[in-house]
Amino acid sequence: MRSRTQNRHDSHLDSVARTARTARASRASSASRSRPFAAALVAGAAGLALALGAPLAASAHVELEASSTAPATLSVLTFAVGHGCEGSPTTSLAIELPAGVQSVTPTVKPGWTITESAPPADPTVLEATTVTYTADTPLPDGFRDTVEISALLPVDGQAGDLVAFPTVQTCESGSYAWSELPSSDPDDPEPNEPAPALVLTDAASGAGATDSADGSATTATAADATAAAPIDDTARLLGLAGLAVGVVAVVLLTIGLRRQQEARR
Question: Distance between CA atoms of 168 and 118, rounded to whole angstroms?
Fold first, then answer.
C-alpha cells in the first residue's frame, strides 16, 4: 500500500504540474494578444511613412526664378536645388539654355566650378549653351543651394511662349534628368522630372512690377511656368492610402487594448 508520505508527494507534483501548465497558457495568451498590437503598430508606421514620404518625393525638383520674363530682355535666372539623388549628395548641375537664349553669362558662385560649352564655329548660327556648375564639395541631400545665370531671353519670343532649361543633376550615386515638359492635354499625367521653365510675358508685366516698400522686382517661378502642382495625383492617392492604413491600425490598437484591459479584470 502507498504511504501517506508518497500520497502527499504525488499530490505536490500534480500541483506543480498544474501551475506550470497555467503559466504556459497565460504566456501563450499574452503573446497572442501582443501580436495584433505589434502588427497594428507596424501598419500604422508604414501608413504614416507612405502618407508623408510620397508627397515629399513627388515635390522634389530643380526650381527656377527669373528677374524678368519679357522677350528680348536680360534676365537673371536663379536655379535652386534642395535635395540629392535618393539621399546621395549632389556633385554637379548641367543647365542647357536653348538656342533662342543668348548672351549667356554665368555668375561666379563660391564653392562651385563653372564650365561652359564651346561657342559655335559660325557666330551667326544659334545653338544651345550648356553651363555646368560642379561642386567643390558635394552638396549633401537636404541642403539647398542656388546658382545664377544672366541671359538674354528670346528676341522673337511672344507672350505665352514656354522657355525650358533642361537640367541634369548628377550625384555621387545616380542622377536626375530634369527635362520633361508638361503636356497640353490636361488629362495626361504630370511629368515625373519636370524641366525648369518660365513663360514669357508682355513687356509691361515681364519687366517686373516695382514694390513701393523695397523696390524688388516681381519674379516668375518654374511652378508658374509649368502650371504643375507640386504634388501629382499619384502622390495624393498614395498619401490617402497611407492615411487609411494608419487609421485602421489605430482602430485595431484601440480594440486590442480594450480587450486586454477586460481580460485583466
Answer: 18
Give the amino acid at 144. R
CB 177 within 8 A of CB 96: no
The predicted-structure confidence for 243-255, as pLDDT tens digits, reads as follows: 666 666 666 777 7
Q: How many CB atoms lie within 10 A of CB 153?
A: 24
Instruction: Report whether 157 contacts 100 (CB < 8 A).
Output: yes
The grid cell for 74 is: 536680360
* 3-state secondary structure labels for all residues of 96-151: EECCCCEEEEECCCCCEEEEECCCCCCCCCCCCEEEEEEEEEEECCCCCEEEEEEE
Kindly report the pTM of this predicted structure: 0.60
Span 33-59, pLDDT tens digits: 555 555 544 455 445 444 444 444 444
Q: What cell does 71 get?
A: 522677350
Grid cell locating 202: 508682355
Do 93 and 147 touch, CB atoms closer than 8 A?
A: yes
What residue type is 93 in one-letter code? L
Is the Cβ–Cβ distance between 137 and 90 less than 8 Å? no
Residues 6+ apart with CB under 8 A from 135: 90, 91, 92, 111, 112
